[in-house]
Amino acid sequence: MELLRRPLGDMCKNQINDEKLMDKLKAEKWDLAIGENFDVCYYGVLHRLGIKNYITISTSTLYENYAMTMGIPSTPSFVPAMFSTAKPPFTYYEKKYDEIFNNSKKGVILVSFGSNLQSVAMPEEMKKAFLETFKKFPEVTFLWKYEKEDDNIFAGYDNVVTGKWLPQNDILGNA
């Protein structure tokens, strides 16, 4: 965007300072202007012409800074901003884990024993010992890589979230 800033600014100055063009447009005595929100020069021209009533349209994604100027909320979680450096809209897993991180009061702890040791094969009393320990920290969310989806052992442990597969790099990168 920095590459376009100077040429767009120069074009805008040329338009606004073109007395012949401004006089011709002013002579039309506009009641209402309707314009594309391609760049902010549109607003400078409106100001120069004294046009107070206008409608701004956008045939594409709105530039984030324009939206903020107009009081339109930014919703990058499902409508990416034009020229945004953010990733495309969240995937299901990104939304799920983002929600877990945002709702955990004191943080998230990843519990994984790697690919070779499976938690499902642990003795029941060992699993219960982990769960009872986790229960003592209700404001912490424990993400446990657990290979069986419908194991009832987790019932009643509201701060434990299990998954057969967890995006470990993303989870650790969010810490």
From TrEMBL:
Highest taxon listed in the record's lineage: Eukaryota
Keyword hit for Glycosyltransferase: yes
Reactions performed catalytically: glucuronate acceptor + UDP-alpha-D-glucuronate = acceptor beta-D-glucuronoside + UDP + H(+)
Database matches in InterPro entries: UDP-glycosyltransferase (IPR050271), UDP_glucos_trans (IPR002213)
Keywords: Glycosyltransferase, Transferase
Record GO terms (molecular function): glucuronosyltransferase activity
Top EC class for this record: transferase
Gene3D superfamilies attached to this UniProt entry: Glycogen Phosphorylase B (3.40.50.2000)
EC number from the UniProt entry: 2.4.1.17
Keyword Transferase found: yes
Protein family per UniProt: Belongs to the UDP-glycosyltransferase family.
Protein name in UniProt: glucuronosyltransferase
Taxonomy of the source species: Eukaryota, Metazoa, Ecdysozoa, Nematoda, Chromadorea
